[in-house]
Amino acid sequence: MTTIATSFSELEEQICQRFDSLSKRLRQVGRYLLDNQERVAFDTVAVIAEQADVPPSTLIRFARAFGFSGFNEMKTLFRAALVEGTSNYNERRRLFIELEEEPLDPESPPDILHRFAKANADALEQLVSLVNDEDLKRAVTILNQADTIHILAAGRSFNVGVYLAYALRHLGRKALLIDGLGGMFEEQVSMISAKDAVVAISFSPYASQTKSSIESISKIGCQLISLTDSAVSPLSGPSDVCFVIKEASVEGFRSQSATLCVTQTLTVSLAALSDKQD
C-alpha cells in the first residue's frame, strides 16, 4: 500500500522513485508537477491539465496512484510548501504587475529588456532557496579532490561549459571540455578516470550527446555533478550532486543567468578553498 506523502518533499521523492514505472501519461503529469511547483499551487485543475497537455481525469488518476482521494488533496502539499518557503517575492511580483500604471508596448525593445531583466531577477532570487547548502559544499569538495575536471555541455548549454572550463583553468585546475569536436564524444569520454570529476550541464529537451555520454560516464566510477532543470531529468539519477535550476524564460527564450550564477559560485568557492589550504 502506498504511503501518502505529508509534505511536498516526501511527494517529490516518491515521484522520483516511481517515475520510470509510471505510464507515459502519468510521467507527463509528474514532470509537469515537479517543474512547476508554484503554478500548481495557484492554478485550477483545468489550467494545470491544459498546461500539462493531459485531460483532467489523468490528474485525478495520478493523485490516486500516490494514495490521495483526489488531485486537490495532493495540491495542498504544493500550497503548503510555497507558503513555508516563500520570501514574499511572488506576492511582490504580482503586486508590481497590478500597480504598473503604464503598460509598456510588448513590441518595443525597452519592454523586451524590462521583461528579460525582471524574469532573470526573479529566477536568481528563487535560486537561493532552491540550492541546498550541503550540495554546494559537497560539489566544491568533489572538484577540489578531482585529478581532472571534465565538463560536458552541448547545444544551448555549451557556452556555460566553455565559461566553466575557462574559469577553472584560470585557477590552475586541469579542466577539459567534452565538446565532441570531430564527432569524438566517445573518445573524449574514454579519457575520464575514476579519480576525475565530471560536471554535466543540460536542460530540456536535453542534448542527445549529453544523454548518451552520461550513460557511459556513470559506469566509470568518477564523481558526477549535474546542472539541470528537473529532478527527473536524465542527468539527475546518476549524479552525486544534482543542482535543479529554474531558469527564466520569456516568449520561449530561456536565459542562463541562474546556471552561470551556480558555476561562478562553484568556481569562486573552489578558489577560496584552495587559498585556505595553501
TrEMBL record:
Record keyword Cytoplasm present: no
Species lineage: Bacteria, Pseudomonadati, Pseudomonadota, Gammaproteobacteria, Vibrionales
Origin superkingdom: Bacteria
Pfam families: HTH_6, SIS
Database matches in CDD domains: SIS_RpiR
Protein name: Fe-S cluster assembly protein HesB
SUPFAM superfamilies: Homeodomain-like, SIS domain
Species annotation: Veronia pacifica
HTH rpiR-type domain segment(s): 9-85
SIS domain segment(s): 139-276
InterPro entries hit by this protein: Homeodomain-like_sf, HTH_RpiR, RpiR-like, RpiR-like_SIS, SIS_dom, SIS_dom_sf, WH-like_DNA-bd_sf
UniProt entry tagged with the keyword DNA-binding: yes
GO BP: carbohydrate derivative metabolic process
Molecular function per GO: carbohydrate derivative binding; DNA binding; DNA-binding transcription factor activity
Keywords: DNA-binding, Transcription, Transcription regulation
